[in-house]
Amino acid sequence: MRSATTIHDVARRAGVAPITVSRVVNNSGYVSGDVRKRVESAVAEFGYVPNSLASSLRSRRTHTVALIVTDITNPFFTTVARGVEDAASDAGLMVIVCNSDEREDKEQTYLRMLLGRRVDGILLVPARGAKDSIRFIKKQKTPMVVLDRPVPREHVDVVRCDSEDGAYQLGRLLVSLGHKITAMLSGPRDVSISVERAKGFRRAFSEAHIGASSRVYHGEFTQESGYEMTRKALAAVPRPTALFAANNFIALGALRSLGDAGLRVPEDIALVGFDDLPPALVTFPFLTVAAQPAYEMGRKGVELLLDRLNGHPPRRFREVVLPTELIVRHSSGTAISFLKEKVNGNPKNRSQNQ
Amino acid sequence: MRSATTIHDVARRAGVAPITVSRVVNNSGYVSGDVRKRVESAVAEFGYVPNSLASSLRSRRTHTVALIVTDITNPFFTTVARGVEDAASDAGLMVIVCNSDEREDKEQTYLRMLLGRRVDGILLVPARGAKDSIRFIKKQKTPMVVLDRPVPREHVDVVRCDSEDGAYQLGRLLVSLGHKITAMLSGPRDVSISVERAKGFRRAFSEAHIGASSRVYHGEFTQESGYEMTRKALAAVPRPTALFAANNFIALGALRSLGDAGLRVPEDIALVGFDDLPPALVTFPFLTVAAQPAYEMGRKGVELLLDRLNGHPPRRFREVVLPTELIVRHSSGTAISFLKEKVNGNPKNRSQNQ
DNA sequence: TTGTACGCGTTATCAC
DNA sequence: GTGATAACGCGTACAA
Hints:
Radius of gyration of chain A: 25 Å
Number of strands of chain A: 12
Oligomer: homodimer
Low-confidence stretches of chain A: 336-354
Helix content of chain A: 40-55%
């Protein structure tokens, strides 16, 4: 089969020892100009590409980190991945992205693969319960950072958003617009952010001391699930006057469901959600959302990871909580122009977040 | 630093030789039930994860293929990636996805990394001119398949769509709707599909023997570029009555640009494009497009690659050309209901492709 | 400035 | 059925 040229081939051709080739290729140690030239031309001639398997085996460094997300088709995670990619690239690291599909078994399978490949570190968005996976990784002593979702009672670095507060802000917005009957279209029960967001949303209403009712529907973080949950929510009596979608895909499903039900947004019913959609994908920005700094989350995650990779392990585990940004658009309904100024601050900020 | 348990640790604990552990773990060779049990419990006790670097170094197989695309944020390539992922997964292969950003230098950098890691095969969507990269890969004797874009005069397997025909069909549609002045918003000049699509589009008009004019604008395959090209196209005299966007992002940019210019689609100007958007991202399917079977392209690419990986190298290089599907929606304008039946066939097909 | 010896963790090969 | 030995390709430690 394939038998690529090795450092020995190059060494023989250049009339030197393998280690000298290594020094030239890696710019380590002293090599005279003459020898360097001979080696370089031999490298070029053979198209020699060093075998990083061997190198990693020896050096115990793969210069690779892994990112496991729960839905790679979701622009939110795509953006996280870009943040990870950019930060890792700056540090000379390659990134392997895996998609767990919100399933623990797939997550475990990928973890086995990645740990087998001896990746230098792992960034994990845990599917469902996270404990088994976290313990598994820690048992291999591989540095890790959990992204996006809080993991109570586990000793691990975490970078996440303030879901509770983001949901609270959306709730307050709806309160201020006079809504009393609302419904939340949430993700799986056993995913922490589903719970956090429900909590924050409810707090806004309970604080307001208005006899409001908010029903919570649990499903998946998908458009299909959003569609179905919306159908159920609309069947409730009394019908909610506003919906809160726990993520962007649920919101899109809700939007379509409402359209199919002949309801106009926001005239007939208001809709707010979590996670903004990237400008490239949206023709007419319309949804009022609590936007998470996805790109920053990715970057920050790598930052924490690097501290451990480079032998600066902080003694304590850290939890970085990033703020969400409330972006008020049309889907939340009346009094928009007033609220825009009040809640969102400088109008210039808005244009970046269509 | 980290020092994971090795096959020797497990072997010692189980009172056997390392090779026996290997046999148990990999289900290769005969191992008695008794020994197997002892080994398995030792594996569990240590949480032993075999080092695939060492394994690959010895066996010359990484069970990994690489996919390099030009824009991972584009749903088209996300879908291709899923096709690749699924097919590879079926064959017990892992996939590493890299994003060249349509830049040759990034493509080369990733290629070095991947070849260094001795991936078993490479699926490449070539950025710009593809020749250097293809030769580089072939020099390492790594099996490869080119996706999405034809590469003339290179000896390599290719899986792509019939861009020329897809563009031709869109052109014919516009001809049949009476358009004579059109503009094409295309990608970079040096990307083959840009040229192919322009050719097919023009052919539709030249065949019709109507004194039609179609101007071609070259830019990037991005929403921003689509926006700008549309501005330029609208400034032309006489103004085009229909636009053809060479991919989905260009179409979205055009849509926004037209909106900003106060033009309604399709009442004031028609718009057709290449590549459909996934249902999950689109609330109201609206664009008339030539849809490419992205998922199939990914799967088929892996299929060709596997033939070479598994030692069934076909003697000739193959080129698989997949058909595009014309999906007529509102953005192309009048006479839709008639055309839907005629061009798109069974209405049931449409609902899958919102 | 260059080279030798050895080890990283695993498996191919051959022996028992 | 199981084991000993060597080799995969490279880099560290030390020597010259």
